[in-house]
Amino acid sequence: MKFNKKSKITLTVLLIFFVGIYFEIERNMGKPTFYKEITKKILPQNLKDFFKTRIFSSKYEYMLLENKNKKLKKKISKQNEMIGARNMKISELISAVGVINFQKTHDELVNINEIGEMRYLKFGTSDLIVGKNPNKKALSTSYFDFSDNKIFLISGDGILSYSSFENFKVSNNLKLKIIPTNLKSIITDNKFFENSYIGVKDLKIIDQKIFISYSKKISDDCYNTSILKGDLSLEKVSFKEFFSPENCVSGKNDFGVNGKWAQGGRIINFNSDEILFTVGTWGEEDLAQDKESVFGKILAINKNNNKHRVISYGHRNPQGLTKDGNFLIESEHSPSGGDELNVINLSSKVDLNYGWPISSYGEHTGYEGSESLKSELYKKAPLHKSHKDYGYIEPSRHWTPALGVSEVVSVKNFFKNGNNLILLAALGDYIEEGDRSVHFLSFDKNYENILNEKVLITNERVRDMIYIAEYDCVALYLESSAEIALIFFKS
User: Fold this and answer.
1) Per the confidence metrics, is the pTM higher than 0.70?
2) Which CATH number belongs to the domain containing residue 473 in this structure?
Protein backbone atom coordinates (compact mmCIF):
# COMPACT_ATOMS: atom_id res chain seq x y z
CA MET A 1 0.00 0.00 0.00
CA LYS A 2 1.49 3.29 -1.10
CA PHE A 3 0.93 6.65 0.61
CA ASN A 4 1.00 9.90 -1.24
CA LYS A 5 2.62 12.96 0.24
CA LYS A 6 -0.64 14.33 1.63
CA SER A 7 -1.44 11.03 3.37
CA LYS A 8 2.03 10.93 4.92
CA ILE A 9 1.64 14.44 6.26
CA THR A 10 -1.81 13.60 7.65
CA LEU A 11 -0.51 10.43 9.32
CA THR A 12 2.45 12.32 10.76
CA VAL A 13 0.20 15.06 12.16
CA LEU A 14 -2.16 12.43 13.65
CA LEU A 15 0.77 10.53 15.15
CA ILE A 16 2.16 13.71 16.72
CA PHE A 17 -1.35 14.60 17.93
CA PHE A 18 -1.97 11.23 19.60
CA VAL A 19 1.54 11.05 21.09
CA GLY A 20 0.99 14.54 22.46
CA ILE A 21 -2.36 13.52 23.94
CA TYR A 22 -0.75 10.39 25.45
CA PHE A 23 2.00 12.33 27.20
CA GLU A 24 -0.40 15.10 28.25
CA ILE A 25 -2.74 12.59 29.89
CA GLU A 26 0.14 10.66 31.47
CA ARG A 27 1.71 13.87 32.81
CA ASN A 28 -1.54 14.99 34.42
CA MET A 29 -2.87 11.68 35.71
CA GLY A 30 -4.27 12.21 39.16
CA LYS A 31 -4.53 15.98 38.68
CA PRO A 32 -7.73 17.95 37.99
CA THR A 33 -8.00 18.96 34.29
CA PHE A 34 -10.87 20.21 32.10
CA TYR A 35 -10.79 17.11 29.86
CA LYS A 36 -10.89 14.81 32.89
CA GLU A 37 -14.26 16.26 33.84
CA ILE A 38 -15.53 15.70 30.27
CA THR A 39 -14.26 12.10 29.91
CA LYS A 40 -15.64 11.27 33.38
CA LYS A 41 -19.14 11.90 32.02
CA ILE A 42 -18.90 10.29 28.57
CA LEU A 43 -16.59 7.26 29.05
CA PRO A 44 -17.88 4.08 30.74
CA GLN A 45 -15.96 2.89 33.82
CA ASN A 46 -14.65 -0.30 32.17
CA LEU A 47 -13.09 1.77 29.36
CA LYS A 48 -11.51 4.18 31.88
CA ASP A 49 -10.10 1.20 33.77
CA PHE A 50 -8.73 -0.22 30.49
CA PHE A 51 -6.90 3.02 29.71
CA LYS A 52 -5.45 3.26 33.25
CA THR A 53 -4.31 -0.37 33.59
CA ARG A 54 -3.29 -1.06 29.97
CA ILE A 55 -2.43 2.13 28.12
CA PHE A 56 -1.06 4.16 31.04
CA SER A 57 -0.08 1.20 33.24
CA SER A 58 3.38 2.46 34.31
CA LYS A 59 2.08 5.87 35.38
CA TYR A 60 -0.95 4.30 37.06
CA GLU A 61 1.21 1.87 39.06
CA TYR A 62 3.51 4.74 40.05
CA MET A 63 0.49 6.73 41.24
CA LEU A 64 -0.76 3.79 43.30
CA LEU A 65 2.67 3.38 44.92
CA GLU A 66 2.92 7.13 45.52
CA ASN A 67 -0.49 7.20 47.21
CA LYS A 68 0.41 4.15 49.27
CA ASN A 69 3.67 5.83 50.30
CA LYS A 70 1.82 9.00 51.35
CA LYS A 71 -0.59 6.95 53.45
CA LEU A 72 2.30 5.06 55.07
CA LYS A 73 4.13 8.32 55.86
CA LYS A 74 0.97 9.75 57.37
CA LYS A 75 0.50 6.57 59.41
CA ILE A 76 4.13 6.60 60.59
CA SER A 77 3.83 10.28 61.52
CA LYS A 78 0.70 9.51 63.53
CA GLN A 79 2.38 6.54 65.21
CA ASN A 80 5.39 8.71 66.12
CA GLU A 81 3.04 11.25 67.67
CA MET A 82 1.39 8.48 69.67
CA ILE A 83 4.79 7.14 70.74
CA GLY A 84 5.84 10.63 71.76
CA ALA A 85 2.64 11.01 73.83
CA ARG A 86 3.24 7.58 75.37
CA ASN A 87 6.85 8.46 76.17
CA MET A 88 5.71 11.64 77.90
CA LYS A 89 3.26 9.65 80.02
CA ILE A 90 5.97 7.10 80.89
CA SER A 91 8.32 9.98 81.73
CA GLU A 92 5.65 11.44 84.02
CA LEU A 93 5.14 8.05 85.71
CA ILE A 94 8.88 7.59 86.24
CA SER A 95 9.14 11.14 87.57
CA ALA A 96 6.25 10.43 89.94
CA VAL A 97 8.09 7.36 91.26
CA GLY A 98 11.12 9.60 91.63
CA VAL A 99 13.91 7.14 90.76
CA ILE A 100 15.54 5.39 87.79
CA ASN A 101 16.57 1.83 88.60
CA PHE A 102 19.88 0.37 87.41
CA GLN A 103 21.14 -3.17 88.01
CA LYS A 104 24.69 -4.45 87.64
CA THR A 105 24.96 -6.55 84.48
CA HIS A 106 28.71 -7.06 84.09
CA ASP A 107 31.93 -7.06 86.15
CA GLU A 108 35.31 -8.28 84.87
CA LEU A 109 39.00 -7.47 84.68
CA VAL A 110 40.35 -6.62 81.22
CA ASN A 111 43.90 -6.00 80.07
CA ILE A 112 44.99 -3.80 77.17
CA ASN A 113 48.59 -4.06 76.07
CA GLU A 114 50.62 -0.90 76.93
CA ILE A 115 47.60 0.50 78.81
CA GLY A 116 47.30 -2.02 81.62
CA GLU A 117 44.67 -3.86 83.63
CA MET A 118 41.24 -2.34 84.17
CA ARG A 119 38.04 -3.26 85.95
CA TYR A 120 35.05 -3.05 83.62
CA LEU A 121 31.53 -2.80 85.11
CA LYS A 122 28.11 -2.23 83.54
CA PHE A 123 24.74 -1.23 85.01
CA GLY A 124 21.57 -1.49 82.93
CA THR A 125 18.10 0.03 83.11
CA SER A 126 14.71 -0.58 81.52
CA ASP A 127 13.31 2.75 82.73
CA LEU A 128 14.87 4.93 79.99
CA ILE A 129 13.33 4.10 76.62
CA VAL A 130 13.92 7.05 74.26
CA GLY A 131 16.75 6.71 71.75
CA LYS A 132 18.00 9.62 69.68
CA ASN A 133 19.18 7.83 66.56
CA PRO A 134 16.11 6.22 64.95
CA ASN A 135 18.14 4.74 62.07
CA LYS A 136 20.52 2.91 64.40
CA LYS A 137 17.93 1.61 66.87
CA ALA A 138 19.43 3.34 69.88
CA LEU A 139 17.55 1.90 72.85
CA SER A 140 18.16 4.86 75.15
CA THR A 141 20.32 7.95 74.62
CA SER A 142 21.69 9.78 77.67
CA TYR A 143 24.51 12.11 78.72
CA PHE A 144 26.18 12.63 82.06
CA ASP A 145 28.69 14.56 84.14
CA PHE A 146 30.39 14.29 87.52
CA SER A 147 30.26 16.90 90.28
CA ASP A 148 30.64 16.89 94.08
CA ASN A 149 31.12 13.11 94.20
CA LYS A 150 27.90 12.53 92.23
CA ILE A 151 27.01 11.27 88.77
CA PHE A 152 24.37 13.41 87.04
CA LEU A 153 22.50 11.79 84.14
CA ILE A 154 20.06 13.29 81.65
CA SER A 155 18.13 11.22 79.12
CA GLY A 156 17.68 12.31 75.50
CA ASP A 157 14.13 13.36 76.33
CA GLY A 158 15.15 15.40 79.37
CA ILE A 159 14.80 13.25 82.53
CA LEU A 160 17.48 14.50 84.96
CA SER A 161 18.74 12.26 87.79
CA TYR A 162 21.74 11.67 90.06
CA SER A 163 23.44 9.22 92.40
CA SER A 164 26.43 9.21 94.69
CA PHE A 165 29.35 7.76 92.78
CA GLU A 166 30.22 5.55 95.75
CA ASN A 167 27.02 3.59 95.11
CA PHE A 168 28.40 2.39 91.78
CA LYS A 169 31.43 0.91 93.54
CA VAL A 170 29.60 -1.09 96.20
CA SER A 171 26.05 -1.80 95.05
CA ASN A 172 24.51 -4.18 92.52
CA ASN A 173 21.20 -2.29 92.47
CA LEU A 174 21.20 1.48 92.06
CA LYS A 175 18.50 4.07 92.30
CA LEU A 176 19.24 7.36 90.55
CA LYS A 177 17.05 10.00 92.13
CA ILE A 178 15.12 12.17 89.68
CA ILE A 179 15.49 15.95 89.91
CA PRO A 180 12.32 17.81 88.81
CA THR A 181 12.85 20.42 86.07
CA ASN A 182 10.81 22.86 84.00
CA LEU A 183 11.95 21.43 80.65
CA LYS A 184 8.47 20.45 79.52
CA SER A 185 7.28 24.03 79.88
CA ILE A 186 10.22 25.25 77.76
CA ILE A 187 10.33 22.52 75.10
CA THR A 188 7.00 21.94 73.37
CA ASP A 189 8.29 20.16 70.25
CA ASN A 190 6.78 16.65 70.27
CA LYS A 191 9.80 15.24 68.42
CA PHE A 192 11.89 15.95 71.53
CA PHE A 193 9.96 13.17 73.30
CA GLU A 194 9.95 10.74 70.37
CA ASN A 195 12.60 8.32 69.09
CA SER A 196 14.00 10.97 66.79
CA TYR A 197 17.17 13.02 66.22
CA ILE A 198 15.62 15.87 68.20
CA GLY A 199 16.62 15.96 71.88
CA VAL A 200 19.29 16.64 74.48
CA LYS A 201 22.83 16.72 73.04
CA ASP A 202 25.03 17.19 76.14
CA LEU A 203 25.11 17.89 79.87
CA LYS A 204 27.85 19.84 81.65
CA ILE A 205 28.18 21.15 85.20
CA ILE A 206 30.39 24.25 85.52
CA ASP A 207 30.68 26.57 88.53
CA GLN A 208 27.56 25.07 90.15
CA LYS A 209 25.58 25.79 86.99
CA ILE A 210 24.09 23.01 84.88
CA PHE A 211 24.17 23.45 81.10
CA ILE A 212 22.31 21.29 78.60
CA SER A 213 22.43 21.59 74.82
CA TYR A 214 19.44 20.53 72.76
CA SER A 215 17.79 20.63 69.33
CA LYS A 216 15.67 23.78 69.29
CA LYS A 217 12.78 24.18 66.87
CA ILE A 218 12.70 27.77 65.60
CA SER A 219 9.98 27.33 62.98
CA ASP A 220 8.40 24.51 61.01
CA ASP A 221 11.15 21.94 60.27
CA CYS A 222 13.83 24.57 60.99
CA TYR A 223 16.22 23.90 63.89
CA ASN A 224 19.44 24.95 65.56
CA THR A 225 21.49 23.71 68.52
CA SER A 226 20.90 25.83 71.63
CA ILE A 227 21.83 25.82 75.33
CA LEU A 228 19.77 26.05 78.50
CA LYS A 229 21.28 26.88 81.90
CA GLY A 230 20.09 26.47 85.48
CA ASP A 231 21.39 26.60 89.04
CA LEU A 232 22.52 23.15 90.17
CA SER A 233 20.16 21.79 92.82
CA LEU A 234 19.15 18.33 93.99
CA GLU A 235 15.60 19.55 94.69
CA LYS A 236 14.62 21.22 91.41
CA VAL A 237 16.38 22.80 88.44
CA SER A 238 14.73 25.73 86.67
CA PHE A 239 16.33 26.14 83.27
CA LYS A 240 16.49 29.38 81.32
CA GLU A 241 17.68 30.14 77.83
CA PHE A 242 21.42 30.74 77.80
CA PHE A 243 22.46 30.64 74.13
CA SER A 244 20.03 30.46 71.23
CA PRO A 245 21.07 31.64 67.76
CA GLU A 246 18.44 33.47 65.71
CA ASN A 247 19.17 31.45 62.58
CA CYS A 248 18.08 27.88 61.91
CA VAL A 249 18.56 25.26 59.19
CA SER A 250 15.55 23.88 57.35
CA GLY A 251 15.22 20.27 56.26
CA LYS A 252 14.77 21.76 52.78
CA ASN A 253 17.81 24.01 52.87
CA ASP A 254 19.68 25.42 49.86
CA PHE A 255 22.41 22.81 50.09
CA GLY A 256 19.89 20.00 49.65
CA VAL A 257 20.72 17.72 52.60
CA ASN A 258 18.27 17.17 55.47
CA GLY A 259 21.00 16.68 58.09
CA LYS A 260 19.25 16.47 61.45
CA TRP A 261 21.94 14.02 62.57
CA ALA A 262 24.66 16.71 62.25
CA GLN A 263 23.95 18.87 65.30
CA GLY A 264 27.13 18.86 67.41
CA GLY A 265 26.22 20.10 70.89
CA ARG A 266 29.28 19.37 73.08
CA ILE A 267 29.93 21.73 75.98
CA ILE A 268 33.16 22.06 78.01
CA ASN A 269 34.59 24.66 80.34
CA PHE A 270 37.13 26.89 78.58
CA ASN A 271 38.28 29.49 81.11
CA SER A 272 36.91 31.56 83.98
CA ASP A 273 34.77 33.61 81.57
CA GLU A 274 33.81 31.26 78.73
CA ILE A 275 32.54 27.84 77.81
CA LEU A 276 33.20 26.05 74.51
CA PHE A 277 30.32 24.79 72.40
CA THR A 278 30.33 22.70 69.21
CA VAL A 279 27.69 23.31 66.55
CA GLY A 280 27.09 21.07 63.53
CA THR A 281 25.92 22.09 60.07
CA TRP A 282 22.48 20.44 60.25
CA GLY A 283 23.00 19.56 56.56
CA GLU A 284 23.56 23.05 55.16
CA GLU A 285 27.19 22.18 54.68
CA ASP A 286 28.55 25.39 53.16
CA LEU A 287 27.71 27.27 56.39
CA ALA A 288 30.81 25.65 57.92
CA GLN A 289 32.96 28.05 55.85
CA ASP A 290 30.82 31.12 56.62
CA LYS A 291 32.44 32.94 59.55
CA GLU A 292 29.26 34.93 60.16
CA SER A 293 27.30 31.73 60.82
CA VAL A 294 27.42 29.68 64.04
CA PHE A 295 26.94 26.40 62.13
CA GLY A 296 29.93 24.11 61.61
CA LYS A 297 31.95 25.85 64.34
CA ILE A 298 33.51 25.56 67.77
CA LEU A 299 32.37 28.65 69.67
CA ALA A 300 33.56 30.32 72.86
CA ILE A 301 30.54 31.72 74.71
CA ASN A 302 30.79 34.23 77.54
CA LYS A 303 29.22 32.87 80.75
CA ASN A 304 27.81 36.26 81.74
CA ASN A 305 26.66 38.08 78.61
CA ASN A 306 26.24 35.08 76.25
CA LYS A 307 28.31 36.75 73.50
CA HIS A 308 30.21 34.31 71.32
CA ARG A 309 33.32 34.20 69.15
CA VAL A 310 34.56 31.59 66.69
CA ILE A 311 37.47 29.43 67.83
CA SER A 312 37.63 27.13 64.80
CA TYR A 313 35.49 26.38 61.76
CA GLY A 314 35.18 24.03 58.79
CA HIS A 315 33.58 21.33 60.97
CA ARG A 316 30.68 19.12 59.91
CA ASN A 317 29.34 17.39 63.02
CA PRO A 318 31.73 17.88 65.98
CA GLN A 319 30.75 15.11 68.41
CA GLY A 320 33.55 15.14 70.97
CA LEU A 321 35.63 17.86 72.62
CA THR A 322 38.22 17.98 75.40
CA LYS A 323 40.90 20.43 76.46
CA ASP A 324 44.49 19.84 77.58
CA GLY A 325 46.45 23.05 78.16
CA ASN A 326 46.63 24.99 74.89
CA PHE A 327 45.23 22.09 72.90
CA LEU A 328 41.67 21.13 72.05
CA ILE A 329 41.06 17.60 70.83
CA GLU A 330 37.91 17.32 68.72
CA SER A 331 36.19 14.42 66.97
CA GLU A 332 33.68 14.77 64.15
CA HIS A 333 31.54 12.75 61.80
CA SER A 334 32.01 12.84 58.06
CA PRO A 335 29.06 11.61 55.98
CA SER A 336 30.43 8.25 54.75
CA GLY A 337 33.97 7.42 55.79
CA GLY A 338 36.50 10.06 56.81
CA ASP A 339 35.58 10.50 60.49
CA GLU A 340 38.18 12.81 62.00
CA LEU A 341 40.17 13.39 65.17
CA ASN A 342 41.51 16.95 65.13
CA VAL A 343 44.06 18.66 67.37
CA ILE A 344 43.38 22.39 67.66
CA ASN A 345 46.44 24.32 68.83
CA LEU A 346 45.04 27.44 70.51
CA SER A 347 48.44 29.15 70.48
CA SER A 348 48.81 28.68 66.72
CA LYS A 349 48.88 31.76 64.50
CA VAL A 350 47.30 29.99 61.51
CA ASP A 351 43.64 30.19 60.57
CA LEU A 352 41.93 27.32 62.45
CA ASN A 353 39.96 26.07 59.45
CA TYR A 354 39.47 22.30 59.23
CA GLY A 355 38.20 22.23 55.68
CA TRP A 356 34.63 20.94 55.62
CA PRO A 357 32.99 20.80 53.11
CA ILE A 358 35.83 21.57 50.67
CA SER A 359 38.17 18.89 51.98
CA SER A 360 37.25 15.59 53.61
CA TYR A 361 38.36 11.96 53.50
CA GLY A 362 34.69 10.95 53.41
CA GLU A 363 32.11 10.93 50.63
CA HIS A 364 28.68 12.48 50.27
CA THR A 365 25.48 10.65 51.15
CA GLY A 366 21.86 11.77 51.00
CA TYR A 367 21.44 12.03 47.22
CA GLU A 368 19.17 8.96 47.18
CA GLY A 369 20.71 7.40 44.08
CA SER A 370 20.26 10.50 41.93
CA GLU A 371 23.39 11.05 39.84
CA SER A 372 22.37 14.62 39.02
CA LEU A 373 21.92 15.47 42.73
CA LYS A 374 25.21 13.73 43.51
CA SER A 375 26.94 15.81 40.84
CA GLU A 376 25.45 19.00 42.30
CA LEU A 377 26.66 18.06 45.79
CA TYR A 378 30.23 17.59 44.59
CA LYS A 379 30.15 20.90 42.70
CA LYS A 380 29.17 22.70 45.90
CA ALA A 381 31.43 20.61 48.15
CA PRO A 382 34.17 18.73 46.29
CA LEU A 383 35.54 16.86 49.33
CA HIS A 384 39.16 17.00 48.18
CA LYS A 385 41.32 14.22 49.58
CA SER A 386 43.80 16.66 51.02
CA HIS A 387 43.34 19.45 53.54
CA LYS A 388 46.82 20.90 53.44
CA ASP A 389 46.88 21.35 49.65
CA TYR A 390 43.83 23.60 49.89
CA GLY A 391 44.97 25.69 52.85
CA TYR A 392 43.22 23.76 55.64
CA ILE A 393 44.48 21.86 58.70
CA GLU A 394 44.86 18.10 58.31
CA PRO A 395 43.18 15.83 60.87
CA SER A 396 45.53 14.00 63.24
CA ARG A 397 43.69 10.79 62.41
CA HIS A 398 40.86 9.85 60.09
CA TRP A 399 38.97 6.60 59.69
CA THR A 400 37.49 5.00 56.58
CA PRO A 401 35.20 3.12 57.05
CA ALA A 402 33.92 5.60 59.62
CA LEU A 403 33.84 4.69 63.32
CA GLY A 404 30.86 6.84 64.16
CA VAL A 405 33.06 8.82 66.55
CA SER A 406 31.50 10.37 69.65
CA GLU A 407 33.03 11.87 72.79
CA VAL A 408 36.76 12.27 73.52
CA VAL A 409 38.41 12.63 76.94
CA SER A 410 41.92 13.39 78.10
CA VAL A 411 43.39 11.19 80.83
CA LYS A 412 46.02 13.50 82.30
CA ASN A 413 49.36 12.27 83.67
CA PHE A 414 48.68 8.69 82.63
CA PHE A 415 52.13 8.14 81.11
CA LYS A 416 55.17 8.84 83.28
CA ASN A 417 57.21 9.99 80.25
CA GLY A 418 54.92 12.97 79.63
CA ASN A 419 53.08 11.54 76.61
CA ASN A 420 49.32 12.09 76.38
CA LEU A 421 46.45 9.60 76.50
CA ILE A 422 43.23 10.43 74.65
CA LEU A 423 40.19 8.16 74.74
CA LEU A 424 37.81 8.23 71.79
CA ALA A 425 34.35 6.63 71.97
CA ALA A 426 32.80 4.99 68.89
CA LEU A 427 29.20 4.40 67.86
CA GLY A 428 28.77 2.65 64.53
CA ASP A 429 27.63 -0.90 63.82
CA TYR A 430 30.65 -2.97 62.80
CA ILE A 431 33.06 -4.13 65.50
CA GLU A 432 35.57 -5.37 62.92
CA GLU A 433 35.90 -1.75 61.69
CA GLY A 434 36.59 -0.40 65.18
CA ASP A 435 33.00 0.62 65.94
CA ARG A 436 31.25 0.09 69.30
CA SER A 437 34.51 0.50 71.14
CA VAL A 438 36.75 2.84 73.11
CA HIS A 439 39.99 3.76 71.33
CA PHE A 440 43.06 4.50 73.48
CA LEU A 441 45.29 6.87 71.49
CA SER A 442 48.77 7.70 72.78
CA PHE A 443 50.06 11.10 71.59
CA ASP A 444 53.51 12.56 72.06
CA LYS A 445 54.01 15.51 74.42
CA ASN A 446 52.90 18.23 71.96
CA TYR A 447 50.11 16.29 70.23
CA GLU A 448 52.08 16.20 66.99
CA ASN A 449 52.03 12.44 66.45
CA ILE A 450 49.92 9.44 67.45
CA LEU A 451 52.33 6.84 68.82
CA ASN A 452 49.89 3.93 69.07
CA GLU A 453 46.22 3.07 69.20
CA LYS A 454 44.60 0.32 71.26
CA VAL A 455 40.94 -0.69 71.34
CA LEU A 456 38.56 -1.89 74.06
CA ILE A 457 35.49 -3.47 72.45
CA THR A 458 32.25 -2.62 74.24
CA ASN A 459 29.97 -4.22 71.62
CA GLU A 460 27.60 -1.31 72.22
CA ARG A 461 27.23 2.20 70.82
CA VAL A 462 29.13 4.54 73.16
CA ARG A 463 27.14 7.78 73.17
CA ASP A 464 28.85 9.66 76.01
CA MET A 465 32.04 9.41 78.05
CA ILE A 466 33.60 11.32 80.96
CA TYR A 467 36.85 10.92 82.89
CA ILE A 468 36.52 11.09 86.69
CA ALA A 469 39.99 11.97 87.96
CA GLU A 470 39.06 11.53 91.64
CA TYR A 471 38.45 7.81 91.02
CA ASP A 472 40.78 7.30 88.03
CA CYS A 473 37.72 6.08 86.19
CA VAL A 474 36.11 6.51 82.78
CA ALA A 475 32.30 6.39 82.65
CA LEU A 476 30.48 5.49 79.41
CA TYR A 477 26.85 5.62 78.38
CA LEU A 478 25.97 2.72 76.06
CA GLU A 479 22.90 3.76 74.11
CA SER A 480 22.22 0.47 72.30
CA SER A 481 21.74 -1.34 75.63
CA ALA A 482 20.71 1.48 78.02
CA GLU A 483 23.72 0.87 80.25
CA ILE A 484 26.25 2.88 82.23
CA ALA A 485 29.72 1.35 81.99
CA LEU A 486 32.66 2.15 84.28
CA ILE A 487 36.33 1.54 83.52
CA PHE A 488 38.56 1.73 86.59
CA PHE A 489 42.27 1.98 85.81
CA LYS A 490 44.44 -0.12 88.11
CA SER A 491 47.75 1.41 89.24
Assistant:
1) yes
2) 2.120.10.30
